[in-house]
Each structure stands twice: as structure tokens, then as C-alpha cells.
What we know:
The chain is an alpha/beta fold. Helix content is 39%, strand content 16%. Helix 6 (139-150) packs across helix 7.
Amino acid sequence: xxxxxxxxxxxxxxxxxxxxxxxxxxxxxxxxxxxxxxxxxxxxxxxxxxxxxxxxxxxxxxxxxxxxxxxxxxxxxxxxxxxxxxxxxxxxxxxxxxxxxxxxxxxxxxxxxxxxxxxxxxxxxxxxxxxxxxxxxxxxxxxxxxxxxxxxxxxxxxxxxxxxxxxxxxxxxxxxxxxxxxxxxxxxxxxxxxxxxxxxxxxxxxxxxxxxxxxxxxxxxxxxxxxxxxxxxxxxxxxxxxxxxxxxxxxxxxxxxxxxxxxxxxxxxxxxxxxxxxxxxxxxxxxxxxxx
Length: 292
């Protein structure tokens, strides 16, 4: 069994980007820029946005965080996004979700220029992904594929079973992996709560991607010997023995499933660190394609 070290791969990607950006600086060129727009004071969102800013600083990328009160009107927020659509110093715009109830998420996502949609949520980005055109891809699914690539895990003709159908992970990773392209070209099944017996599908998986948000849902009797397991779930479960009173677990019962797996991601330290790394990579690629 090989443990897939997402922390290491994410650091490798950041190191590669740091070198690319240093080269731009040495040539006297502008550097890629990422702006994060944080509406309100959700504590988890604040931590996440702060870590994105630190990651940008580490690799020499320009970064800015717009902290906006929750009382902002939808129109004011859309105007702010439009100002960054036209700002040539920033090649990626990220609006941290969730948003206050009076602001329509769809409207905000659609306001971001597809050329700066580094989260890969714009309908144009999603549509291009589905039909196999080059586009920004959601960061977590892109990170999953990157892990498979860097661990040299063959995906051609392999049966990938995805647990979960969210717009952030389930649907995009399914669309990425079924494309007739290198490092994809898989047979993909998407499973969700309507399946009468999920294990019927999970037992067939060569590669299982769990993104349901149910703690330790996948047990060892639900997978076959030699399966590759990518666990996207991050769940808090009560644990009085821990200083914080809880521990983090994935959607997979790690200790028992690892006995059967050929490769498996831990939680934490597996898929999680890849999300910010791919956000930085998307911003750099947006700069190369549309910016400078």
C-alpha cells in the first residue's frame, strides 16, 4: 500500500510555480495576481482566504484580499467584481463562498470573467470542461487528477467510481476523467444517495473517489483488493481524547480500507493541500493565456 502524500505534491507544485514566477521577475515582467473577495466574517472562510494569501506570498505571486461587510448589496459586489475583471494586475478572481442570503451565488459566479475564473465555476468554464475544451477546472478535481498523474496511476480504461455529485467535486472530476485525453480516458460511474446499494458500484471500482461528506462511510467490504482510494471528505467527529475534542476523518474508514488499497490518500494531508496549489496553478496559467 502506498500513501499518497498530497502535502508533498502540493509543495512541489508551489516550488515549480515559484521558479516560474522568479523567471518572470528576472525578465522584468509583471507577475500573476490573485484577488480574493471575502463577504462577511465567516471564520472558516477567513482562515481559508488567509492561507491562500500566504501561499501567494510564498511563491512571489501578487495577492490581495477584499474584506467586505455582509451588508454589501448585490449590485455593489457585482460592480467590485467588474472592476477586477478590468484590472490587468489581477489574473484570477476568487469570491469566497458561502455568501450572505441576500446575494445570489449564481449571479456572482457569472459576473466573474471566464478569463479570470480560477475557481472553474463559471457556466462557460463548466460547459467547456464537459465538451473537452481547454478551460479552467475546479481546483479540487484538478488536484485529484494531478495526484493520479504524479503517482503514475494508470487511468486509461479503468473504472472510476465517484461517490457524490456536487458541482464542486463530483460532477467536475467525473467530466475530467471521462475525456478522451492522456491521464483520463476512464470509464466513470457517479453514485449518490438514490443508489439502492452503493457497494454494488464501489466493489467494481479500480479507482474510488469519495466526496460525499459522510464520515467513514466506505468500509473495507465495499472495495476490492488493489483499489486506488482518493478520499475528498473532511469531517469532524467527536473525540474526547483530542485537545480540541474532535478529530478529522475522511469519507473512507482509513484504517480498514488501507489493508486492501494499492494507493490511498490520508485525511488530512491528502487531497486538501492540493486545492490551493491548483488555485495558484490556475492563476499562473490564466496569466500565461490572457495576461502579462
